[in-house]
Amino acid sequence: MNRLDIEEFGIVGLSVGGMWGAELAALAPERVKVLALMDSYLGDETPEARQRYMGMLAAVEQAGAITSPLLEYIAAQFYSDEVPDALSQPLLAHLQSLPAARLRESIVPLGRMIFGR
């Protein structure tokens, strides 16, 4: 929003987007005027889940890529086993194509903020 010179705004957050939106609203309450959360959880992660997510983020940061085992985990989180591969492949291909710098400077820090809450 800073780059767009937008001072005040609303957020509609779905799932992890809701987690991010809540964090942003807490960091900049004077700027976030409306917040709608859908299918989101704002409570603490269990210690086991937090450790698993932080381990995944550390692996992405170290590799500079999202590797196959993690892609399989992500697919299982977003798609049913009954979904044809043709429907999940665009997301997985996009995730594999993300440059290392973007992963390290954007995705990993955002993930740490969300799952470290």
From TrEMBL:
GO molecular function, one term: hydrolase activity
Stored Pfam families: Abhydrolase_1
Keyword terms of this UniProt record: Hydrolase
InterPro entries: AB_hydrolase_1, AB_hydrolase_fold
Residues annotated as domain AB hydrolase-1: 1-46
Protein name, as recorded: Alpha/beta hydrolase
Organism: Serratia marcescens
